[in-house]
Write a sequence for this structure.
């Protein structure tokens, strides 16, 4: 008869292994976590972009919690009596006063405040770059359309969170941004006045905007972003992770590292991201509100520039002519309404692109292998054109600074930006498409003739030829493991296609 009181061999082990076994038996009795950690995860440097988004968001949350303990979101006027001499004795808002205290009185406050701001910039930049990686490689296709939409919504929420946080210190620069926000809200037909009155707690500038922006920045928007991240993780867990084409990689398997190993590497990457953010905060000054001074509704900060991610909206506002029309007894301020509509349409088109591409191409199959951008010239050209429009609008947001630095007329800069908003995206589309087709042709020539070695030989009859070296099987697979779509006549290959290309196409189609 067995003695139930005798310790088992596993139970006799002490130390960390025993603690780990105890936790495993109680928290994961079915072994599901262990099975998940053994799942393969593709290993490629571009997947780190999503990790930068996550880890910079963690830094944002942690630094934001610290700042919340000292920040007072109130427009109540107080007399500044801090250590910064030039402003001592002036009337400022409680929000501005508390931000000055954080910067000069709280131990480590300026470092945390600047780290919070830098983390916000890194988060939006990494998220936009991550989205572009997904776009150009086709990782948004079925079954990941909803994952793409969630990522676009995260980008929009990140921009709104940055805008609301940027305006909380109530300095002159952020107040200039509030003027733009108020004008944009007032341009919305029918409900614009009500939106402005609700946001500002009365007629502009009101007394409630800081309190309400603080609630949006600290409570509502972070909650929405966390919910979107959880939904993104849940959808990603239910789908097979996409991978780049390569030897042994197909639509039905995953080649990579175990998820457990990937998580260990990712933990080290978190400290790299956090360290970089705090290094920037320590050596690069950002948003010095003591130089701008407190906000005054009758003043505008000279040379004011928004954070980079809002540059597209500010640029569109600056270059838009001051058009107004009257209809049915109402005045439509098109100089604000049209930029708002165009900016919103820009991101709406980005979010709807997976569904538009599937409808146009008729391709509704599930895809787990990523594309090389050159093999999808139209999609690549559309993405490049979208980015060029964003870049031109961003330049328009600095029209006054450009005119000042280069000693040209601000009107000339504005007109160049206006024309470029139409011409540059079209030119970039054509150039990017032709560039992608040219890269396709170079790949096909490389497959047909091999790699150029730089060695030139002279034949007996006097002809000079360059020696080509056959490609490795891995390189051949990479260049041929994709669907071969129809190409223009100028890029068609003659009938002497090698058997290797035919066989690779046949294997890929199967």
């Amino acid at each position: 008869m067995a003695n139930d009181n005798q310790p088992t061999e596993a139970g006799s082990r002490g130390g960390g292994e025993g603690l780990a076994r105890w936790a495993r038996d109680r928290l994961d009795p079915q072994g599901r976590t262990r099975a998940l950690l053994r799942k393969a995860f593709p290993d490629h440097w571009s997947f780190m972009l999503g990790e930068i988004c996550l880890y910079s968001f963690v830094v944002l949350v942690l630094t934001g919690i610290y700042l919340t303990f000292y920040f007072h979101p109130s427009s109540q006027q107080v007399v500044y009596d801090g250590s910064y001499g030039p402003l001592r004795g002036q009337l400022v808002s409680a929000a501005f006063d508390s931000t000055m205290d954080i910067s000069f009185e709280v131990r480590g406050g300026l470092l945390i405040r600047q780290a919070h701001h830098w983390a916000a910039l890194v988060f939006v930049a990494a998220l936009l770059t991550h989205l572009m990686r997904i776009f150009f490689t086709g990782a948004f296709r079925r079954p990941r359309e909803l994952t793409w939409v969630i990522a676009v919504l995260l980008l929009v929420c990140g921009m709104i969170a940055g805008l609301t946080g940027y305006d909380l210190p109530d300095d002159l620069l952020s107040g200039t941004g509030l003027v733009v926000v108020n004008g944009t809200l007032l341009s919305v037909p029918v409900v614009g006045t009500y939106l402005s009155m609700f946001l500002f707690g009365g007629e502009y500038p009101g007394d409630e905007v800081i309190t309400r922006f603080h609630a949006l920045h600290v409570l509502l928007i972070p909650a929405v972003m966390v919910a979107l991240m959880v939904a993104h993780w849940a959808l990603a867990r239910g789908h097979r992770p996409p991978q780049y084409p390569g030897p042994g990689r197909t639509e039905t398997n995953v080649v990579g590292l175990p998820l457990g190993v990937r998580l260990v590497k990712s933990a080290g990457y978190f400290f790299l991201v956090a360290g970089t953010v705090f290094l920037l905060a320590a050596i690069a000054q950002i948003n010095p509100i003591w130089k701008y001074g407190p906000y005054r509704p009758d003043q505008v900060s000279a040379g004011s520039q928004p954070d980079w991610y809002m540059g597209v909206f500010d640029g569109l506002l600056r270059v838009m002519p001051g058009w107004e029309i009257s209809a049915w007894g109402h005045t439509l301020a098109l100089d604000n309404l049209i930029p708002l509509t165009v900016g919103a349409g820009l991101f709406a088109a980005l979010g709807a692109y997976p569904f538009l591409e599937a409808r146009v191409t008729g391709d509704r199959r599930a895809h787990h292998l990523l594309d090389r951008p050159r093999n999808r010239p139209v999609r690549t050209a559309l993405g490049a054109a979208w980015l060029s429009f964003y870049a031109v609008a961003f330049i328009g947001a600095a029209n006054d600074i450009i005119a000042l630095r280069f000693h040209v007329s601000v009107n000339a800069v504005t007109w160049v930006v206006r024309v470029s908003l139409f011409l540059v995206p079209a030119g970039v589309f054509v150039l990017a498409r032709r560039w992608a087709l040219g890269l396709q042709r170079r790949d096909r020539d490389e497959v047909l003739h091999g790699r150029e070695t730089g060695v030139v030989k002279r034949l007996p009859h006097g002809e000079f030829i360059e020696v080509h070296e056959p490609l490795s099987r891995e390189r051949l697979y990479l260049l041929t493991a994709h669907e071969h779509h129809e190409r223009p006549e100028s890029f068609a290959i003659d009938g002497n296609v090698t058997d290797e290309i035919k066989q690779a196409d046949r294997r890929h189609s199967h």
The CA atoms of residues 173 and 304 lie 6 Å apart. The beta strands are 40-41, 77-79, 91-93, 257-258, 324-327, 330-333, 451-458, 464-469. The longest strand covers residues 451-458.
